[in-house]
Every structure is written in C-alpha cells, then in structure tokens.
Amino acid sequence: MDIQIYHFVEGARQARGLTVIIDVFRAFSVACYVTAGGVQNLLPVGSMDTAYRLKQDNPEYILIGERGGVIQPGFDYGNSPFSIQAVDFSGRTIVHTTSAGTQGLVNAVNADEIITGSFVNAQAIIDYIRIRNPKHVSLVCMGWGALEEADEDTLFAQYVKNALEGKPNDFQDIVRYLSLESKTGKFLDMTDASAPPEDFDLCLSLNRFPFVLKAEPHGESLIRLRKLGVVEGVML
Ligand SMILES: O=C(O)[C@H](CS(=O)(=O)O)OP(=O)(O)O
C-alpha cells in the first residue's frame, strides 16, 4: 500500500486512490456529530453561493458552516460541534460549507474514493482502509483556510499512516502538543459563539464514532456524505 500525504486544495486535486480529506478542526468532526445526530442527507459544498441557492430552493434545509471561523448570515449553525452535538437532525438535509474541509471534498476530482478524516472516527477510518486494501492511499491535510498547515491535520495524517504501517501512536502526546504548543490551542481560549472552547475536546474525542463518511454523487452536481459503519474491523 503506497501512502502519500498532501496539503490544501492543490493536494486534494493531486490525490488518487482511496483519499482521506482531513479537517480535524472542525469540518469533519462536525460532519460526524451531525451524522450521529441522525441527519438524512449531509451535503458538503464549496461556495457560499451554492449553499444559499440550495437554501432558497429548499427552505427546510439546514445551513451549517463558516467563513473565517465565523457563522455567516442566514446560517442555522456555525462550524461548531458544541453548537450541534445535542441537536436531533433526523430526516433533515444539511448543507455544510467551510473554508478548508469542504473545499477539499469538492476538489478531490482524481480520487477513486473519498472519505473524511478526523480523530473522532480515526479507528473506523484506519479499519476501513485496511478492509478496502487499496493500492494507493492519499491523506490530504486541509489546514487553516486551506492555506496554512494546521498541526492537528498533519498529526492526524501521520497517525493514520503509522497505524497502517504498524507503527505506534501516542494520542495523549498529540493532545498535549495541540493544547500547549500549537496554534491549535487557540480554540481553548476562544469566547466567540462561533468557536466555543468546548470544541477543542469535542474535536479530539478519539474514536467516538464507529463509522466513516464516504462522499458519493448526489443529483447532478452535488456530493453527499454517506455513513458506513465499521466496528472492530468489520464493515456493517
Ligand atoms: O471554522 C473552522 O474550524 C475552520 C476555519 S479555517 O479553516 O481556519 O479558516 O474551518 P474548517 O474548514 O473546518 O477548517
């Protein structure tokens, strides 16, 4: 298995094989929380225009996301796991747009298969890759605004690579580093309603969810993230 690590939108375009688009803080942690909240259709989109058009055509849709980390006018929720973790999304369609994570999903045009990456479903992702056993795995770190490396995304890519190569990982050390030494620790100090400090622990709640989110075509031009259960190395 050939495992390559890429960065940002350009990396998403280069990715091939089974591709993991990584955004730990916070897009793909949010995506897992809303999936656990029962969402029927989770539609990641790149542009704000697409998000607003979908809402205009379908007023019952829920808009979630941010620009510059901040909830945008007309949105129902920001890109915050704390704000949505207790919400029942059963039967609902969510449109999700973010500065980094969802940009990677819509740009991974050369991938054979795309799943999301975050620590909240890390073991399911590792097990899924092992089950699929592809020739090429691409791990794409989306970073801050898809422009600047974010430690948590790079550390997640290395965590998955290590696991697949049979090398050890020290998750407690990752949490210590992110909270005390990395720019990511800023999430602990934020008081903005769009980025409450609780998001830090919620995004680093290791293996909370036993499923992967796989991108699939939805209609003519959209993608949908479908939940695939993976428990103890077995796909449900
Ligand atoms: O709101 C977030 O957590 C980030 C903002 S940014 O990437 O730092 O601009 O968005 P995400 O796409 O979840 O990384």
TrEMBL record:
<protein>
    <recommendedName>
        <fullName>Probable 2-phosphosulfolactate phosphatase</fullName>
        <ecNumber>3.1.3.71</ecNumber>
    </recommendedName>
</protein>
<dbReference type="InterPro" id="IPR036702">
    <property type="entry name" value="ComB-like_sf"/>
</dbReference>
<comment type="similarity">
    <text>Belongs to the ComB family.</text>
</comment>
<dbReference type="InterPro" id="IPR005238">
    <property type="entry name" value="ComB-like"/>
</dbReference>
<dbReference type="Pfam" id="PF04029">
    <property type="entry name" value="2-ph_phosp"/>
</dbReference>
<keyword id="KW-0378">Hydrolase</keyword>
<keyword id="KW-0460">Magnesium</keyword>
